Amino acid sequence: MPDVIEQLRKYGEVVEQRAVETAASRDAMRPVRRHRLVLAVAAASVLVVLGVVVALITRDDGSTTNSVGVAPQQVVTPPVPAGWKAVTYGPVQFAVPAEWPVYDDGRCYDWSTYGVYLVTPVYSSCSGTARALNVYAVRVAGDASDFSGTPQQLNGLRALVSAPDPVDNRPQVSRVALPEQEVLIELRFVSLADASLAHEIISTIGAAEVPAPFPVQPPMVPPTAKPGPSEFCTAVEDFRTSGLIDAASGAFRQGALAYFERIREAAPSDSRPPLDVIIAWLQQGAPLPKPSDVSQAELQTTQDWARRC
Amino acid sequence: VGTYAEPVSEPAFETFVADLQPRLVRAFVPMRGVDGAADAAAEAIAYAFENWDRVRRMENPAGYLYRVGQSRTRAPKRPRLPMPETVGVPEVEPALVPALMRLPESQRTAVWLVHACGWRYAEVAEAMETSASMVGNHVSRALHALRRELEVDGHA
Q1: Are strands A115-117 and A102-103 parallel, antiparallel or unpaired?
Q2: Which run of H or of E encompasses A153?
Q3: Do A51 and B53 touch (CB under 8 A)?
């Protein structure tokens, strides 16, 4: 028999597969039970679809021709409530409050203010804190089976609507897929009050009174390359996993000096000053109580490591 | 106030899920059994989706999401683990599974995550809310106990 470690590894590989198979066979019989997994997988699927679409649109040498060419079977003019305005996206329109900005220039989403985004951000590093309701429209390709949601008729258009039960103060996403129009509209919001607003916006989705070309997707800006594993980060990781930090006190155990010297050797110049303070203290035998400048240096190095690695 | 991560078109989350979900499924097996491991992983991934902006910045998302999956699902009294011979690994000692399940929870988790799942000590430390050195202690004791039990069984 192989050693215990090897046996654990082999057994782990097999039971992982068995766990996945067990869940799959159970879900085939009771699909509702794993709503959460469906949500996560659906989200991942949407991301895949959108990623492909963005790539295709970006490659589309700027053509603005609407290749959909599918007119709604029953044209129903979507409602535009008083004080709202219609936003047209290709063959589709929806309404939002008149004061909301509508962007089609590829800027990053502003999560803190209400707005409409008709073009995917060209930057890969957009992020922010969600507070308001944002609406995104994306051109997608695929048949209905590519999307999840409850089939509905929205002002005469066949739609798949995925709207979670609203929970206050939690990021939520409602999605409306219009397979024939090749459009996906997402509404992201946080507060319970915005859930009803999202619902109202969804009710205004329909065929555009005057279809427009899809906005041109600007080329994506290549992401800033994050430095890969470096000698510095490797040295940091080795120290972190060395077991030389006392769990209770946070103090370094004997042997930490060699690790710190290795880290310093590989560190960028602006990371070295706090390391020098720690190394000097370790070279003195790490006398206690720990001087405040050493504590401060430890905090700086910890933050520096988290930032760089 | 919650947070969103990146533009929905960015494939970062999809890549993240593809990498992490199987790791989490395997990780949850000893505590949730083969019946519940995928559910716990799904809960963790759903949380990651809902909190992607925060999760994507984590130094150690696997360890954190392991805790999420643990807290969001209920542990069965006796997690069901298949015997090695029934899942086609005859080279694994049949006594390994009962010996594993007899270990204290901390030792079982540590040795499983490190040696069956290949997690780094830092990841396991995050998952167990302890230090890497404590993980080392748990692993060492668990291996000692497993070897002792398997040796006894082997000579029985």
Answers
A1: parallel
A2: strand A150-154
A3: no
- Please give the Cα distance from A71 to A78 (Å, whole number): 14
Chain A closest-CA separation from residue B121 CA (Å): 6
Residue A8 and residue B116 in contact, taking contact as beta carbons nearer than 8 Å? yes
Tens digit of pLDDT for each residue in A255-275?
788 888 888 888 887 788 889
Positive or negative: CA dihedral A208, A209, A213, A217: negative
What pLDDT, on the 0 to 100 scale, is given for residue A62? 34
Rounded to whole angstroms, the Cα distance separating A126 from A106 reads 11
Q: Residues near A121 by Cβ (< 8 Å), separated by ≥ 6? A: A106, A107, A108, A109, B7, B9
Contact A40, B104 (CB under 8 A): no
Q: Give the residue-averaged pLDDT of A113-136.
A: 74
Residues 6+ apart with CB under 8 A from A179: A142, A143, A144, A146, A147, A158, A160
Specify whether the CB–CB gap between B148 and B87 falls below 8 A.
no
Task: Identify the residue among A5, A6, A11 best suited for mutation to test binding to B, counting B beta carbons within 10 A and taking the highest.
Answer: A11
Residues 4-23 of B with CB under 8 A from A: 4-14, 17-18, 22
Q: Is the pLDDT of residue A248 over 90?
A: no
> Is B46 in contact with A37 (Cβ distance < 8 A)?
yes
Residue B49 with chain A: CB contacts under 8 Å: 39-40, 43
Give the best residue of A7, A29, A57, A110 to mutate against chain B (max B CB count within 10 A): A7
**CB A54: neighbour CB atoms within 10 A?**
24
Of A43, A120, A306, the CB nearest to B59: A306
Which pLDDT tens digit goes with each residue over B61-111? Answer: 999 999 999 888 888 877 888 888 887 888 888 899 999 999 998 999 999
Of A7, A37, A108, the CB nearest to B96: A7
- What is the percent of chain A where pLDDT is above 70? 68
What is the residue whose two structure tokens read 């959909």?
A: A68
Q: Strand A134-139 relative to strand A115-117: parallel, antiparallel, unpaired?
A: parallel
ipTM: 0.86
